[in-house]
């Protein structure tokens, strides 16, 4: 799984039948809908955007401002870039006292999918990122020994690693958690239509006329192009592929298999559609690492989740 903030999911929203760049939904041609209000920026290192529809644009603009405050709060929990974030302090000290409810919740969900995937998803993957990103020539087996989700204890009062040198990354699940949080707040505030892209994508409601928002999937063989589209209506999407970030010309990329310590390469791309972005986020990583054979069992543990797998020969399988 990925161990550092990066845009490992690459996708585009297609509005009104027109291909549009990531984060620039531009759905102003939707008939029967008010003008969209948009925001573009970055969340946990991922290119991000929010598009809201409301009869009163000032209400939408005010809501976006409120959501940015919530995003800032959550970045103070999950960001690996910020030295003062909860994760950064945990990784630095090996222990964190009085963690936020958000961190405990995400770790609980991480533990569940780590167990279900037999460790293909592991939140303690960060030492592998550090090893490969630094180009270190040390022994990989020693680094792999630091990746073990069962050696992490997490409760409402304390989170701690069992071994010195362990470190946490939640980039395979936290972006989904933040995406869900923002989408659900907007729904509770009365918004009926929005598309939220905060590392993962989640649609609130549907496009004008009740049609799903059309989402284009990057072609893993040619990341500059779109391979196909899927519809999203009150659902979330996450896409994992090794084309997002490569370390060198050797084929090493940022989605690591904890079992080998090396980049996972049994699939070219995994796209997961699920009711929640946090599910889609973790499942896309777990299936990409665990491989096609584990996909059905993993998806069966999350009601309403399905996946589109792209094999290394370019063939597709829907699960």
TrEMBL record:
Magnesium. Can also use manganese. It catalyses: L-threonyl-[protein] + FAD = FMN-L-threonyl-[protein] + AMP + H(+). Its cofactor is Mg(2+); Mn(2+). It is an enzyme of class 2 (transferase). The keyword Transport does not apply. SUPFAM superfamilies: ApbE-like (SSF143631). Signal peptide: none annotated. InterPro entries: ApbE, ApbE-like_sf, TAT_signal. Keywords: FAD, Flavoprotein, Magnesium, Metal-binding, Transferase. GO terms for molecular function: metal ion binding; transferase activity. Mg(2+) binds at residues 172, 281, 285. It holds the Pfam family ApbE. PANTHER family: FAD:PROTEIN FMN TRANSFERASE, THIAMINE BIOSYNTHESIS LIPOPROTEIN APBE. Belongs to the ApbE family. This is FAD:protein FMN transferase. It comes from Pontivivens nitratireducens.
